[in-house]
Amino acid sequence: MRTLSGCGTVVVSGSLAQRPGIGGHAWVFLQYLLGFKRLGFDVLFLDWLNDKMCIDAAGRPCPIEDSWNLEYLSEVMHQCGLDDAWSLDYGHGEKTFGVSREAVLAKTKGADLLLNVMGFLSDVEILERPQRRVFLDIDPGFGQMWQDLGWATMFRGHDTYVTIGENIGHPDCTIPTCGLNWITSPQPVVLDQWPAHDSGIHAAFTSIATWRGPFAPIEYRGKTYGLRVHEFRKFAALPRSSPDKFNLALEIDPIEVKDLAMLSANGWRLLNPREVAGTISGYREFIQQSKAELLIAKNIYVDTRGGWVSDRSLCYLASGKPVLAQDTGFGRRYPTGAGLLKFSTFEEAAAGVKEISADYGRHSRAARAIAEEHFDSNKVLTRLLERVQ
Q1: CATH architecture of 191-374
Q2: Quick one: fold of 9-189+377-387?
Q3: pLDDT, tens digit (0-9, with 9 covering 90-100), for 160-178
Q4: For the sheet containing 292-295, what is the strand order?
Q5: How many CA atoms lie within 13 A of 175 on its CB side?
Q6: Which of 38, 95, 270, 323 is deepest in the core (most CB within 10 A)?
């Protein structure tokens, strides 16, 4: 594989068009695409839809040509200078948008690497063409448990397996390996897309989150692994313990009446994530106008001790925003205490808020330094390419 010459092709597959209006989700794929492009590689993004997924901006079913899905994908790629680097398959080959099917087949033949995020791409004709087919796990715990329980077989058809659950295989990590040799790697952040930004000490602690998300809790080996809602309730009273402001761009169903009332009563300012962070530029602006991130993780990330670090936290760190994150075991690999602080209890979270506010300049500088040292896309992707050969 021509890993370091920067003259080859890297293909990334993922579900951007399926989730229009979620800026942070789009950035997950963009960090890889723009990161590999910075290294000199030709890049191609592959996505797919079917007729049941196509909606207009009001959420109503519509033809693919008029869909918000297609418009959003096209606009995101255009804004990032990737107009000729994406292809959307509709209806299993019925129609193709962006790069044609013929061009996709030509471009993927002999490509250095296919990075198949969560096994999203299942097109056998494309899967068999690149030199190396890599399954990229960005939701550590879910896929491995589903496979071990016999609920899914999502890992087949790949040469190499990469996970951001960097503690997998460690004795106190309960994520099953499924008999696979996992390569661990953090997610990258493209630093020139996320410059340090001084929004001032008087800005709010913020977060962007989904209350429940698309996956259900998992019963695995006698234990229930839950979602963010199951952790957030433990820290709901945090704003009442501090003079700081707490803004939460939260995707939550209106039927969650009790939880919405609980959050409001405890001083959280709830924002509509589609309005404040639905575009890739809006998402970046929301983060860069923040004081710091308060990250409350999904219960499965906390209880498996997999070492998960949020892609969103990397954007905060790169922007010079301290991150106060619930402990998932990431302290085994990354420095904590300045710029990146961890907590397990309510008392530790409250102390972390106070510490960041008391010495904000130091924590802000340390945040950027951590991003540069540990998560810079140039470093992360170069190491990844070397390890997947």
Answers
A1: 3-Layer(aba) Sandwich (3.40)
A2: Rossmann fold (3.40.50)
A3: 999 999 999 999 999 999 9
A4: 269-271, 246-251, 205-210, 292-295, 323-326, 340-343
A5: 30
A6: 323
